[in-house]
Amino acid sequence: MKKIIMVAVIATAMFANLNANGQGIGSTFAVNGVTYKITSLSPNEVQLNAFATNPTGSYTIASSVTGGIDNRTYSVISIGAAFQSCSGLTSVTIPNSVKYIGGSAFYGCSGLTSVTIPNSVTSIGNQAFSSCTGLTSVIIGNSVSSIGDYAFSGCSRLTGTLTIPNSVTSIGASAFYNCSGLTSVTIGNNVSSIELGAFGNCSGLTSVTWNAVYTTYASSPFYNLTSITSVTIGGSVQVIPSYLFSGCSGLTSVTWNAVNCTLPTNTSYGPFYNNTSITNVTIGDSVQVIPNYLFSGCSGLTSVTWNAVNCTLPTYSSYCPYLLQYINNQCNYWQQRTSNT
Known about the structure:
Layout: H1 2-16, E1 28-31, E2 34-41, E3 44-51, E4 57-60, E5 64-67, E6 72-79, E7 89-93, E8 100-101, E9 114-116, E10 123-124, E11 137-139, E12 146-147, E13 160-163, E14 170-171, E15 182-187, E16 193-194, E17 207-210, E18 217-218, E19 230-233, E20 253-256, E21 280-283, E22 303-306, H2 321-339
Parallel strand pairs: 3-6, 4-7, 6-8, 8-10, 9-11, 10-12, 12-14, 13-15, 14-16, 15-17, 16-18, 17-19, 19-20, 20-21, 21-22
Antiparallel strand pairs: 1-2, 2-3, 5-6
């Protein structure tokens, strides 16, 4: 009896993945030279999988398609490696039905010049737009939560400012590696993980605005980027990783606006550790706490612009003699001001 019940359960599970005519999840069908793979039967969803002939010029991805054995209508929710090496593709329109851009989806589309990722998309896969050497601009929709490894690596003509939206929580290793045309990057509020060399070899990058509130993992995303000259830390930042700007030997100016920020637990190494090139620091007017060791090792610091009205000064400022002197002067100033009131 147990065997019969088990067989019945297995059969039920199998048929749940088949439509009325026996076409199941993972099976494919073609419509007008485009192959789709069924990813769900409840609701009816497919992935754009391949082309009989590589598309050229402008291409609009259909939001839905009717086909298969029973000629039913499916929503197109994901893009596989369908456009890989379509060098003649110049522009693509991605519909709001798409939720996932898969790995290598547009890999090597060297003729693609711009792309807008709609707000429906939640993830961008590994190498999705890698080696799109003609890509000059990209707009990332405000629902994307993850950007995969090497997602935009080698997009050397990507220029201007890149904004990582607040929806993004993770940025993969070398995600924007060798995007040498980028000049500034803004990191959104919710990035909690950013992998090794995410912006490696972005040799044109000169400024970074960091707004991530609580980053639990950052593996030297800007390591040795000597082109970076200025960094702004946003007011909402609560925890900032150690060594975040390690090796950025061209960095000269830091604007610190974080109201109440700390370093990770059990560390005495700040995000600017040993950045001896930093000469100027500006403390924003809303700052309430300066973390200990924030500018540890920044021995080249010679100028501090202090706008904070009510700020707790750090206890430890080792190897940063100018800041230590400035803090001592600040302490004397506040002590004298307090005694005179």
